[in-house]
Design a protein that fits this description.
Radius of gyration: 20 Å
Strand content: under 5%
Helix content: 55-70%
Distance between the termini: 52 Å
Largest sheet: none
Number of strands: 0
CATH topology of the largest domain: Four Helix Bundle (Hemerythrin (Met), subunit A)
Number of helices: 7
Shape: elongated
CATH class of the largest domain: Mainly Alpha
CATH superfamily of the largest domain: bsu32300-like
Amino acid sequence: NDAELKEIVGRVSADLQAIQSYLGQKNHADAKVTFPRGFIRTAAHFRSRFVFLGDETLKRNVAYTLILSDVYRWLLNRTGISGTAKEMIIKEGICLVGSLCESVTKDVLNGVVGKKWGYKDRTQYLLDNDIIDAALKEDLDWVWDNRNNEHLFLVEIWEHEHYKLTDYNRAIKALRNLRDRLDEYCATPF
């Protein structure tokens, strides 16, 4: 029940803090906490969600990347991480999603559009051919613009207090919607 959950969370949080207080920045072989089992989905699960990808290596790497996304999701949903650390996890999650969207669109449109077509050219092609709608294109392009913040020398703003959980959720939703649309449209040839 919720009362027991609250008690367990308090106890585990206090114990984790005790470990940190004891070790500080030092490492210790006996200080590894077991990551909870059952939250991170398997590579097979993610591969089954991207059956339309033609490149088996890419499909596997997409799955591995989504496993990392589950780690980010766990940190954001199961810990009280806050401040800049939380924002940078969110940023990295968005960058991860941007890389996935880039790779997925490149694979699906391989041989359909030119190799030199950029990401936004590919999302425009998807829109022009009624594979995605304007709202999804806007979200996908927003993900890409934020993904490019990975290049720190290009970032023109201070990123402090810039990234919000709603941004990460928007990116994840865009990827899911892209996956669903491509799954539907890849069932029939372009």
